[in-house]
Amino acid sequence: MKFPSPQTLQSISELLGAKFIGPADFPVLGINEIHVVEPGDLVFVDHPKYYDKALNSRATVVLINKEVDCPEGKGLIVSDDPFRDFNKLTNHFRPFRQSHQSISDSAKIGQDTVIQPNVFLGNNVEIGENCIIHANVAIYDNCIIGNNVIIHSGAVLGADAFYYQKRTDKFDKLLSGGRVVIEDDVEIGALCTIDKGVSGDTRIRKGTKLDNQVQVGHDTVIGERCLIASQTGIAGCVIIEDEVTLWGQVGVTSAATIGEKAVVLAQTGVAKSLPGGKTYFGSPAEEAREKLKQMANVKRIPDILNKLEK
Questions:
Q1: What DSSP letter does each residue of 286-305 carry, written as one string?
Q2: CATH number of this structure's domain 2-93
Q3: Coiled-coil segments, which residues (predicted)?
Q4: How far apart, in whole angstroms, are the C-alpha atoms of residue 190 and residue 177?
Q5: pLDDT digits (tens, 9 = 90+) for 101-145
């Protein structure tokens, strides 16, 4: 998430009421999570396990809960609660804005696009040309929809990330300031839910087709010309490369990558990254031919035991 205008290390630290380490005029251009940071971004870290990863990332500024040596070319902001202060930045630069009508005045709708009754379009939504948005679709603030996109009834684009910090007596929500971006020629089935990024984009690339009742988590990127069947659940920060097929009721764990042209058969549980160009089945997922062979051998166990007893 980029700020509307460049900030400085000092201005951000003053906004948070925290100490900074580095030049006061050091530029800060936005905030992002560790897996999508770019130069100019601020990233937060609140566990020693991830200090090195954050300090050595592409981020220019690190919001951290311990005073450490500042790497060359970076700035630090030392906070007693980086999670809380990251939320402060999201809330300051991209606050929730209440809507007072079904289609916001700031929404942009392309030529020959059809918007059916009872559609909700939030602030700053952009929809391209020749799209069909069916009844009762909700598209939250800042979502971007390309050309020739079809979205079926009941779909929700841009809901918050499922991302919480466990406290002693409750769960604290990490505020979502990212977007959903749908590229050209995508079709989204009825009752699909696509969560926006925490600070970056959840993206579905050109030509991909989603069946009904598919869940896509925050900051996930789905490649071009993928097919995703009904009741598939994809967690946050997943990368699905081009021309992947996920059949019904597949579940994909957070931060996994599924390689180009992979096929994942129905009811498979993807617990780790999978190389492309292969077919997978089972939970945890394995190459389908090997998994089916294992299942066939399991069925032979009673006969084997009977023969041993004789």
A1: EEHHHHHHHHHHHHTHHHHH
A2: 3.40.1390.10
A3: none
A4: 25
A5: 999 999 999 999 999 999 999 999 999 999 999 999 999 999 999
Q: Where are the domains of the chain?
A: 2-93, 108-293
CB-count burial class (<10 Å; 0-12, 13-18, 19+) for 23: exposed
| Active-site residue, from 47, 92, 134, 218 | 218
The hierarchical CATH code for the domain 108-293 is: 2.160.10.10
Q: Can you tell me which residue has the tokens 């749908």?
A: 182
Flag residues of the chain having pLDDT under 70: 310
pLDDT at residue number 297 = 84
Can you tell me which residue has the tokens 């990330």?
Answer: 161
Burial of 88 (0-12, 13-18, 19+ CB in 10 A): middle
Q: What is the C-alpha to C-alpha distance for residues 217 and 241, in angstroms, rounded to an integer? A: 16
What per-residue confidence (pLDDT) applies to 308?
Answer: 79
Tokens read off for 1: 């998430």
| Torsion over CA: 281, 242, 137, 93 (sign) | positive
Is residue 218 flagged as an active site residue?
A: yes
φ, ψ of residue 285 in degrees (nearest 5): -65, 135
